[in-house]
Amino acid sequence: MLPLRPKRRSDAAQKHTWQLLSAELGSRQQAALLGGFDHRSLIRDLGKKCLEAETNLLNEKTGAEFDRCVRCGHPHDPTVGRMLGVHHLDMTPSNCAWHNIPALCQVCHLVIQHKVIMERNWMFDHTPWFQPYAAAYYGVRAGLLPDTNNYFDSLILVRREFVETWLDYLLSLGKPQVTGA
């Protein structure tokens, strides 16, 4: 009997990452018992493994959206400091829905990292590159779109075409409501 839902690559990759991390921690704990344990190297190595996992997530994504920065349009070019990464707009690393992780170069990432606060209503028009992300966020916040933290589920449940069709309405959900005096 076939499963109702095929296993996603992200689940397998996540399981493999956890296996690597637990094996690494196990060998480090054994080293600690023998003496000479360096906590700084453990933190550095785990940081590298987490960066590799995020890079793998970025590499899993397909389409033109992830070969260049969505804000400035600069292609991935580490030699000039334009290395692509993802920025979690709601500052929640576990939320990997497409509308929460735009591909940004390091320069643009640093520019918007602490300026964008998704929970805050915004009375001005959003820039064109940011509109689909903000509209989807406002739709999820209002309960009009399903809430998911999984990238692959979000591609199905929160279709980009739907968000672009209803862009003006969804963006209006994020504007402060003016009440008459």
Per DSSP, the total helix count is 7
Side by side, the strands of the main sheet go 1-2
How many beta strands in the DSSP annotation?
A: 2
The radius of gyration computed from the alpha-carbon positions, rounded to a whole number of angstroms, is 20 Å
Number of domains: 2
Distance between the termini: 64 Å
Quick overview of this protein structure:
The protein has 181 residues and is mainly alpha-helical.
What does this structure look like?
By secondary structure, this protein is mostly helical. It folds into two domains: 12-60; 87-101 and 109-181, no CATH class. Helix content is 47%, strand content 3%. It contains seven helices and two strands, in the order ααββααααα. The chain has helices spanning 9-34, 39-60, 106-112, 131-141, 151-157, 160-165, 167-172, and strands at 84-86, 103-105. α1 (9-34) runs antiparallel to α2 (39-60).
How would you describe this structure in keywords?
single chain; 181 residues; mainly alpha; 2 domains; 7 helices; 47% helix
Please describe the topology of this protein.
Blueprint: H1 9-34, H2 39-60, E1 84-86, E2 103-105, H3 106-112, H4 131-141, H5 151-157, H6 160-165, H7 167-172
Antiparallel strand pairs: 1-2
